[in-house]
Amino acid sequence: GEIKHDNHHIMGSPYNIDISESQTHGQVGVGGPGIQHGGIIKHFESNFWVDATGAGAGELRVRIMGPKGAFHVKMRKASQKDKLYQCFYDPVEAGIYTVYVQWS
What we know:
Order of helices and strands: EEEEEEEEE
Distance between the termini: 40 Å
Number of helices: 0
Helix content: under 10%
Strand content: 35-45%
Radius of gyration: 23 Å
Structural class: mainly beta
Oligomer: single chain
Largest sheet: 4 strands, antiparallel
Strand order of the largest sheet: 3-4-8-7
Shape: elongated
């Protein structure tokens, strides 16, 4: 049928609209010594990696909360071809550190 507005045919109607199912994206992997429990602060290796190779389009956000609030995280892309990132932070005191990784 025709699509009308105020009893006038809308030019180009009816419209064909292609609606597809949502795309399932892969997961983001996180690993390395900087997210492991334990360790002594003086010798703690605070680096870890994020692998978003199969995660689809997006942008990486990493936040770390420590005993005194938010923490600066240095990130660098380990591979220009893949979505593999190296992350570094410098804890200055003992305590609980929470790492938040988001791929959007």
